[in-house]
Specification:
The protein has 1 helix and 8 strands, in the order αββββββββ. It has about 180 residues and is an alpha+beta fold. The protein has an 8-stranded antiparallel β-sheet, with helices on one face. A hairpin with a 3-residue loop joins strand 4 (about 90-105) and strand 5 (about 110-125). The longest helix is centred in the first third of the chain and has 38 residues, at about 1-40.
């Protein structure tokens, strides 16, 4: 009887490991596909990918993202992005963007978020067909060409889509606290 119970527990544990590995593979492949699809033929990219969170979460970390045009006139640099999802709730993702986040254009200069925390929550409720996107930023410092342009203590931007039969509409909510222009 003990051998039987140990065998069942081992089978369940091994199945859990294989399920987690499969979900990790799906999330990593989806991220790589989206990066390659969205950068287009004029951009070159570089990044490193690592996933953790076993057994109930999948946290895929992308570090040192660099997107650069072939002629070098435009670049996007991110230090770290983490895509977090639960193994048992695949319709909800949280994207954490760790500053600095830099957009550099040789003609117009650079725009960067140098400090703070950015979280982007993406969910889709298929039962009511209502996708939502919530951006939450805290203690953000936005710089243009190295000079502080804007500081924001707390920022929430939420977009929800409501779909009913033939019509649909989007709801936009913005909350900003402690906004200071320089």
């Amino acid at each position: 009887m003990v051998k039987f119970l140990v065998s069942i527990v081992l089978i369940i544990m091994i199945s859990g490991v294989f399920l987690w590995k499969q979900k990790v593979s799906e999330q990593e492949n989806m991220l790589i596909k989206e990066i390659k699809k969205n950068i287009g033929p004029t951009f070159d990219s570089g990044y490193s990918l690592k996933t953790s969170g076993f057994p109930n979460r999948i946290d895929t970390e992308i570090k040192n993202i660099r997107l650069l045009t072939e002629n070098g006139s435009y670049a996007v640099k991110l230090s770290r992005i983490v895509l977090m999802s639960l193994i048992y709730k695949s319709d909800h993702h949280i994207l954490s963007i760790e500053p600095p986040f830099i957009i550099d254009n040789k003609k117009y200069g650079s725009l960067s978020v140098t400090e703070g925390n950015l979280l982007l929550s993406i969910s889709r409720n298929d039962q009511v067909n209502r996708p939502s996107l919530i951006l939450h930023g805290k203690n953000l410092i936005l710089r243009m060409n190295g000079e502080i342009l804007l500081t924001i203590k707390d920022l929430i931007i939420a977009i929800r889509t409501y779909m009913k039969q033939a019509n649909s509409y989007q709801e936009l909510s913005i909350k900003a606290h402690g906004v200071f222009f320089n």
